[in-house]
Amino acid sequence: MKTTTKFFTFILIVSVFTILSAQQKNDKFGKDKKEISKMLDDFNGAAAKADFTTYFNYFADESTFIGTDATEVWDKQAFMIWAKPYFDKKKTWNFTSLKRNIYFAKDDKLAWFDELLDTQMKICRGSGVVEKIEGQWKVKQYVLSVTVPNDVVDKVVAEKSSLEDVLIQQLKNK
C-alpha cells in the first residue's frame, strides 16, 4: 500500500510541476503576444502620424520590407530612402489591424505574425517576422499584400497581365 501511495504522490507532484511550467510558458507567450501586438499597433500608428523616426525605429537594423508591387523588396536603408518623401509630405499610410495571429519559435526570441488590415487599399494582409533584440521586439521582415477576393481574381489577373508579363520575362532572363 505504501508503494502505491508513494507512486501516486510522485505522479501528483510531477503533474503539478508540469502544469505550473506550462502555465508559466502560456503566461510568457501571453505577455509577449501583448507586447508584439502593441508594438505592431504603435508601428502602424507611427506611419499614420508620418513619424519617420519612430516608424523606422521599429525595424531591426538588418530588416526587409516587401511591398505590394513585385519589384518592392527593400532593406531598411533603401525603404527609408523610398519612404522619406511620403513622410516629409505627411502622405503616409494608415493601417489598422482587423485580425492578428502571432506565433512563436521555441527559443522565444523569434515570432511571426499575419494580420488583416483596414487600409486605403481596402483589406490588405500584413505578415512578418519579429525578433526580440535587447529586450524589444523589432521587425525583421514585413510583407504587405493586397488581398484579392476569389470572385474577382480573373479580372485582377487580366488587368495586371500586360504589366507583369514584361516583368516575368525580365526575371526569367536574369
UniProtKB/TrEMBL annotation:
Where would I find the SnoaL-like domain in this sequence? 36-148
* Alphabetically ordered keywords of this record: Signal
Q: Does the keyword Signal apply?
A: yes
Q: Which InterPro entries match?
A: NTF2-like_dom_sf, SnoaL-like
Tell me where the signal peptide lies: 1-22
Family annotation (SUPFAM superfamilies): NTF2-like
The source's superkingdom equals Bacteria
Pfam families from the xrefs?
SnoaL_3
- The name under which this protein is listed is SnoaL-like domain-containing protein
Q: Which organism is it from?
A: Chryseobacterium fistulae
What lineage is on file? Bacteria, Pseudomonadati, Bacteroidota, Flavobacteriia, Flavobacteriales
